[in-house]
Design goal:
heterodimer; A: mainly alpha; B: alpha/beta; Rossmann fold; 6-stranded mixed β-sheet; 4-stranded antiparallel β-sheet; elongated
């Protein structure tokens, strides 16, 4: 009888092993070069977050969130942070937060430009799309293997895995946001003589901001999930708390880590969601939100004298 | 008038490789033939027209007729497949990207059907848009934008966001944005089609008012024949990517030329479209005295005759019934009989709907020029024939 195993003649596992070994051996300088900025920024972020005194951190967070995302989310953030502190995992939470903050930064720095390039060129999109498909269907778990081979173990390789896993949604949403900009508006830009650069900065990007922020929300959540998974390759943070709890069959400790992760994830989700849904203030949602933050007041565009009081104009 | 814009044998096939379709079109194939044979959609099929400077040039057609494609070819939002578009002496089709950008920034601006205002920017920033792209400094463009907003009557709304404005006001902003760049050519793509009928009429009047002082060359796309008649100095009618009729509103209504155009002209209110001068009977001197002249129609039936003084001002009329005998007496050197004073005079530019009212009381209606000189006679028979659809002067087929 002919069995399925008789067909197993493709030594793919070996090929990949050889390929990855070759990469690790010959392209070591490249991976070190990738690792270096990640490491520096990650260390700075984590050290920075740890250095901030606990009460000050909670207070500043609550105030910022209040300005950016409103009272309800601020209250939730305040209570959530206090709960994490009461669970006794504050330090681990700060490490995880640093991991995520760094990941967001890298994702934005790489993902948004790539998304823009995809939106502006069919050819680029045709190349990037299948890569994104593969990245998003690959279980997060599987990322760990090549990362360990190429970057080693620890928090910094973990961060590389987090960035890799969290980037695709931002690329997709940026691409989508720019492509979804009303065709007539793009035509208007062109009809008035916009160059490609002007079209991007004056018309497409500002109008794509809400969608891009939606993508950022997805990126944050993916980063959150991934920051737990990478504890398996030695990354520190809340994930490690869970992992250690499981390893010692200490259900209580594992649960504490889990609760803190959920709280942190919900906070980040609510804040980024609110950012994406922010009202269309003078100059796009993000700038509007930041402007409100800076002025500390309700949306009222125009830093120059032409704006009218709504009541006066009516 | 000089020609501002001249379009010569313009073709548009929506395809990367239009060569075969173009050959077919040049060989007389129709849009449907090309679609069947090559699967390519034809937008424009050998369109040639010229737009005089300062004209309100209407491009009229139903959806799918190629009217928007034609307008978008002029600023090359659609890339023409073949042909030339001459702006003054420059062929726009041959411009490279940078030169095209300059033309779009300085010479041609556009108003869009759904306004196409940036929703995240205030009214004033939207108006400044074209100037900003051109690189005009912040203070200068703000000043210009305020000036233009004032012209369209929206100065008080400068700080609002577009969604806070009504449709009509938003399109005023669209118009202001187009005017702000001071381009001499304005493409208005179904600019008023998305507005309520009342607001649309208001905007049409506003555009006519503005055009009296601005003298832009306006290319106005519309599917509404009434709008074309109201606004246009010339109308081009498109169907199936072809230009099927081009001319002044009056000439198109008088001579539709084909069934397609006739279908539009049938419902036209001719009494508002035609003026007295277009329907009057020319008069010739019948008898002249030292200080007067009797004018009547040439030929057998002279009709009521007008007696005018040496400045061609009307003194009165001679009654049609006894006219033969009276003329005989005058030719024999007799004195002027008593003149009938029951006449009316209308200026040549008076619309027939206004002139027709005079037939109630007056026995005869004369047509005069600006200085009051008699230039013709209006007859009820002719007025009726002119304002009726079909028949002698209207649609050829029924």
């Amino acid at each position: 009888m002919f069995k399925a195993d008789d067909l197993a003649i493709l030594p793919v596992a070996q090929w990949i092993q050889t390929a990855v070994q070759w990469l690790a051996l010959h392209l070591r300088p490249l991976f070190l070069a990738i690792k270096w900025p990640v490491q520096k920024l990650l260390e700075a972020n984590i050290d920075g977050l740890h250095a901030v005194p606990f009460p000050l951190f909670v207070l500043v967070c609550a105030v910022i969130v209040w300005r950016v995302a409103g009272k309800a989310v601020a209250a939730f953030t305040l209570l959530g942070l206090l709960a994490i502190a009461m669970l006794g995992v504050w330090s681990d939470a700060m490490t995880t937060l640093g991991l995520i903050a760094t990941a967001i930064l890298f994702c934005a720095l790489i993902g948004i430009p790539v998304g823009v390039a995809c939106a502006r060129s069919e050819r680029v999109w045709r190349i990037v799309q299948p890569i994104l498909d593969i990245m998003q269907t690959t279980p997060t778990f599987v990322y760990l293997v090549p990362v360990v081979m190429l970057f080693g173990v620890g928090t910094v390789p973990g961060e590389v895995a987090v960035v890799t896993a969290a980037m695709p949604p931002l690329i997709r949403f940026t691409n989508l946001g720019i492509r979804m900009v009303d065709h007539e508006l793009v035509e208007a830009g062109l009809a008035f003589g916009a160059s490609r650069r002007q079209l991007l900065w004056e018309v497409q990007l500002p109008l794509a901001v809400p969608t891009i922020l939606g993508g950022l929300n997805q990126t944050v959540l993916t980063a959150m999930v991934m920051s737990v998974v990478v504890s398996m390759i030695g990354a520190e943070g809340l994930g490690l708390v869970v992992l250690q709890g499981l390893g010692r069959l200490d259900v209580g400790q594992a649960a504490i880590g889990g609760i803190a992760i959920v709280l942190l994830a919900m906070m980040l989700d609510r804040i980024t969601q609110r950012l994406a849904r922010a009202p269309r203030a003078g100059h796009g949602a993000l700038r509007g939100a930041l402007a409100r933050l800076a002025r500390g007041e309700r949306p009222a565009p125009a830093a120059d004298g032409v704006s009218h009081d709504p009541k006066e104009a009516l | 008038m000089t020609e501002r814009l001249k379009i010569e044998h313009l073709y548009k096939v929506f395809s990367e490789r239009p060569a075969r379709a173009l050959d077919m079109l040049r060989g007389g194939a129709t849009k449907a033939d090309v679609l069947r044979e090559t699967g390519q959609a034809v937008g424009l099929d050998d369109v040639s027209l010229s737009v005089p400077a300062g004209a309100m040039y209407m491009i009229m057609g139903l959806s799918g007729s190629g009217k928007s494609t034609l307008a978008r070819c002029v600023n090359r939002l659609n890339e023409p497949s073949a042909g030339r578009i001459l702006l003054d002496e420059t062929d726009l089709c041959s411009l490279d990207e940078a030169a095209l950008r300059e033309v779009r920034r300085n010479r041609i601006s556009m108003v869009f059907q759904h306004f196409a205002l940036l929703p995240n920017r205030r009214v004033i920033d939207n108006v400044e848009f074209g100037l900003k792209l051109r690189g005009v400094g912040a203070a200068a463009r703000r000043q210009r934008a305020e000036q233009v907003l004032d012209v369209v009557g929206l100065a008080r709304w400068a700080g609002k966001l577009p969604h806070e404005l009504s449709g009509g006001m938003r399109q005023r902003v669209g118009l202001a944005r187009a005017l702000a760049t001071d381009a001499d050519i304005l493409i208005m793509d179904e600019a008023f089609s998305a507005l309520d009928p009342l607001i649309r009429a208001e905007m049409q009047d506003e555009l006519l008012r503005l055009q009296r002082t601005l003298h832009k060359t306006i290319l106005f796309i519309t599917h509404d024949f009434q709008e074309a008649l109201k606004l246009g100095t010339r109308i081009a009618i498109m169907s199936e990517g072809r230009l099927v009729r081009e001319g002044t509103p009056q000439s198109i209504v008088l001579e539709p030329g084909n069934d397609y155009v006739a279908a539009f002209t049938r419902e036209v209110d001719r009494a508002r479209l035609f003026n007295a001068a277009s329907s009057m009977t020319a008069l010739v001197p019948l008898v002249a005295g030292e200080r007067w002249t009797v004018l009547g129609a040439a030929g057998e039936d002279t009709g009521p005759a007008f007696v005018v003084d040496t400045d061609a001002h009307v003194l009165g009329t001679l009654d049609g019934a006894q006219l033969g005998a009276q003329l005989g007496a005058l030719r024999a050197g007799g004195a002027l009989p008593e003149l009938d004073r029951r006449f009316a005079c209308v200026p040549g530019h008076a619309r027939l709907i206004d002139a027709a009212a005079h037939f109630g009381a007056a026995r005869a209606v004369g047509v005069i020029d600006e200085s009051g000189r008699l230039i013709g006679r209006l007859e009820a028979r002719q007025v009726l024939a002119r304002i009726g659809a079909g028949g002698a002067t209207g649609v050829r087929h029924v």
